[in-house]
Amino acid sequence: MNSFLRNLAGRPWLWAYVAAIAVWLVIVAFTGGRGGGEVLTAAFTFATFSVIVGIGQMYVVTLGPGNVDLSIPATITLAGAVATKVMDTQNGMILTGLLIALACGVAVGIANYALIWLLRIPPIIATLSSSFLVQSVAIAYGRGIRIKPPPALADFTTAQVLGMPVLAICIIALAAFMELVLRRTLYGRWVTAIGQNIRAARLAGVDVGRTRFYAYVMSAVFAGLCGYLLSGFSGGSSLSMGEEYLLTSIALVVIGGSSVAGGNSNVPGLWGAALFLFLVVTMLNTYGFGAGLRYLATGLIIIAVIVAASARRPAR
Amino acid sequence: MRLTARQLRTLLPALSLVVLLAAIFYLQPRAMSYVGFNLMLNLAIPIALATVAQMCVITVNDLDLSIGTYVGFVACVGATLLSGGMGALPVVKELQASGALPATLPWIMQTPLVGVVALVFGIAVYAALGALIHWRNLPSIVVTLGMSFVWLGLSVLILPVPGGQAPAFLRSLMTLKPAYIPFPIIAAIVIAILANLLLMHTSYGAVLRGAGGNPKAIERAGWSLLKVKMTMFALAGFFGMLAGLSLVGLTTSGDANIALRYTLLSIAGVILGGGEFVGGRISPVGAVIGAVTLTLAGSFLSFMRISPDWQIGAQGAILIIVLAARTLIDRAERRR
Amino acid sequence: MTGPSPFIRLEDVRKSFGAVRALQGVDLSCSAGECIGLVGHNGAGKSTLMNLLAGVFGAEGRMAIDGEDVGGRHTVASAQAQGIRCVFQELSLCPNLTVAENARVMHRALKGFGWRKRAGALITAKLDQVFPGHGIGASDIVGDLPIARRQMVEIARAFTVTDAPARLVILDEPTSSLDAHQASQLLAYVRRFVAEGGAVVLISHLLGEILAAADRVVVMKDGRVVAERPASEFTRSSLVAAMGTVAREEAEERAAVTGRRGGDAPTRVRARAAAGGVDLIAHRGEIVGLAGLGGQGQSEMLIRIFDAARRTVPGITVEGGSALVAGDRQTDGVFPLWSIAENITITSLNRLKRGILIDSGKTDAMAEDWKARIGIRTPDIHNPILSLSGGNQQKALFARALGSTAETVLMDDPMRGVDIGTKQEVYGMIRAEAERGRTFLWYTTEMDELKHCDHVYVFRDQRIVADLSRAELTEERVLHASFEEVA
Question: Which ipTM did the prediction report?
Answer without folding.
Answer: 0.87
